[in-house]
């Protein structure tokens, strides 16, 4: 099964394909009495009649260079003229060239189709970035079959949104964005788009779920709908019963590429700010904190004494010289609120920060040391390429010593030394204590800790020797703490891992 397949416009020569759409709709009747249930409307015709003229078909084309003409295409090895190898190589390469890659074949034009909608009568149109990505030419077809050449104003790959502009002699029908946060599971919605190149088509359904994460990007917060979705609907609008756009249809779950009633739309409230920036400057400036975060689990919350259960985003690393570190955020802090918005779970934070204007001095509430603390962080601009923080200077290494077994944890640890550096291929600036052995079936093994990992902190206290780790564990046991929170570092980065403190094994009777 292909999970959350982008409604990508297929680039097939002279074959208008496109991205599947997500839709759902049905106008609701007049406000019912409190406690009553909405009835199914008799017809969507009045709403569809009003909205269809604002939905457009987007046709794109691009030049596809034949493989045989590309500079990166494999070349036939050179052989001495007249040798048997010359004919052998020529015959082999000719028989094994992919279709359409014969030498001298001219470039071809590939076409695809998608959907979009007019948000400004002057000719401003919104669609998906993947509908127009790589296109040499973009045309917009209105409901009356008028074709207009479109200009790309700006696109944003992180949210898969794009803004186009067309020139027209008369005002175009336009539709407004609505408040997607007010859409509830079970609400009727209407989707209009261009499935499979057939032109304006209307489908209806309900909001199936909110806040879906389909791993499409860092700001996933999709509206799920059960309306029929097929290729060509990408970039089309998802309407509420008021005729407001509450989502942009983007992806589907499908084993075959066709609709099975699981589709996803970008929420309008996420799209509004992105579209506004693209209209104004052609690009998007996003807020940036400079932190690596992870989910707060039940065990992590328990380890930190976090009241109210798992919530917020745990800071695995505050990047040096990043905005968060400059504002006082530390490794091990749990960010509970940012810029007066609750951080319910880890994945809420990137979106909240991204939507915060660059330069804003944002209030931040963190959980540290068993209580809430308030900080102020000045939001910086997200780098074009996420910058990796420079490595910290190496701490003073502990003197080499014997390996220590952490009883009840299933771990053996040793100090960082020339021997352990060579054995586990550790960096020169490695810090902490190295794990030399993990007992199969232990809590550590279940949590993914393996030999060669580094223990950098225990319960948010830095450790530089096995003895310090042992002392921290003993202190936690005396406090009757159920688990120890360790900051583990390996080639994939840093993460906090809670380990249950099993009773220490007593010695065998003599």
Brief synopsis:
This protein has 510 residues and is an alpha+beta fold.
User: Any idea what the CATH architecture of the largest domain is?
Assistant: Beta Barrel
Q: How many structurally independent domains?
A: 3
The profile of the biggest β sheet is: 7 strands, antiparallel
Q: Count the strands?
A: 28
Roughly what is the average pLDDT, rounded to an integer? 81
Low-confidence stretches: 8-37, 386-400, 505-510
Shape: elongated
Q: Termini, distance in Å?
A: 60 Å
Quickly give the structural class.
Answer: alpha+beta
Q: Helicity range of the residues?
A: 10-25%
User: Based on the structure, what is the oligomeric state of the protein chains?
Assistant: single chain
Please count the helical segments.
10
CATH structural fold name of the largest domain: Thrombin, subunit H
Percent in strands: 25-35%
CATH class of the largest domain reads Mainly Beta
Alpha carbon gyration radius: 29 Å
């Amino acid at each position: 099964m292909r999970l959350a397949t982008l409604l990508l416009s297929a680039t097939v020569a002279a074959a208008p394909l496109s991205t599947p759409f997500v839709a759902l709709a049905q106008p609701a009747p007049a406000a019912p009495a409190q406690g009553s249930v909405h009835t199914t409307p008799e017809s969507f015709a009045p709403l569809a009649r009003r909205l269809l003229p604002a939905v457009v078909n987007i046709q794109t084309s691009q030049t596809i260079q034949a493989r045989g003409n590309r500079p990166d295409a494999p070349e036939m090895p050179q052989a001495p003229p007249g040798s048997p190898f010359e004919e052998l190589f020529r015959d082999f390469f000719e028989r094994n060239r992919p279709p359409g890659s014969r030498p001298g074949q001219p470039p071809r034009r590939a076409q695809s189709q998608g959907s979009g909608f007019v948000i400004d009568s002057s000719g401003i149109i919104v669609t998906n970035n993947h509908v127009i990505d790589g296109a040499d030419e973009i045309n917009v077809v209105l409901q009356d079959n008028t074709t207009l050449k479109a200009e790309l104003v700006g696109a944003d790959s992180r949210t898969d949104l794009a803004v186009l502009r067309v020139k027209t002699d008369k005002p175009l029908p336009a539709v407004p964005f609505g408040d997607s946060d007010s859409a509830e599971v079970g609400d009727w919605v209407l989707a209009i788009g261009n499935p499979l190149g057939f032109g304006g088509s209307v489908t209806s359904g309900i909001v199936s779920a909110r806040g879906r994460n389909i791993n499409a990007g860092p700001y996933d917060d999709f509206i799920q709908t059960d309306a029929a979705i097929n290729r060509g609907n990408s970039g089309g609008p998802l309407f509420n019963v008021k005729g407001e756009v509450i989502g942009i249809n983007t992806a589907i779950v499908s084993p075959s590429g066709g609709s099975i009633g699981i589709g996803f739309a970008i929420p309008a409230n996420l799209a509004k700010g992105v579209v506004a920036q693209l209209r104004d400057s052609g690009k998007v400036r996003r807020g940036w904190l400079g932190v690596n975060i992870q989910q707060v689990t039940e065990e992590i919350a328990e380890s930190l004494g976090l009241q109210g259960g798992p919530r917020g985003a745990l800071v695995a690393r505050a990047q040096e010289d990043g905005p968060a570190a400059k504002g006082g955020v530390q490794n091990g802090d749990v960010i509970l609120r940012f810029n007066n918005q609750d951080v319910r779970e880890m994945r809420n934070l990137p979106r909240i920060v991204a939507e915060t204007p660059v330069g804003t001095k944002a209030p931040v509430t963190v959980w540290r040391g068993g209580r809430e603390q308030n900080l102020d962080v000045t939001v910086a601009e997200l780098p074009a390429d996420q910058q990796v923080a420079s490595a910290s200077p190496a701490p003073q290494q502990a003197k080499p010593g014997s390996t220590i077994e952490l009883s009840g944890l299933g771990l053996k640890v040793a100090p960082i030394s020339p021997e352990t550096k060579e054995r586990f291929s550790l960096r020169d600036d490695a810090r902490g204590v190295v794990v030399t052995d993990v007992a199969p079936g232990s809590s550590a093994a279940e949590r993914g800790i393996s030999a060669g990992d580094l223990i950098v902190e225990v319960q948010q206290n830095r450790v530089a020797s096995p003895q310090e780790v042992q002392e921290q564990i003993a202190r936690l046991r005396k406090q009757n703490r159920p688990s120890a929170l360790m900051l583990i570092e390996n080639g994939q980065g840093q993460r906090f891992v809670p380990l249950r403190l099993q009773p220490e094994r007593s010695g065998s009777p003599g």
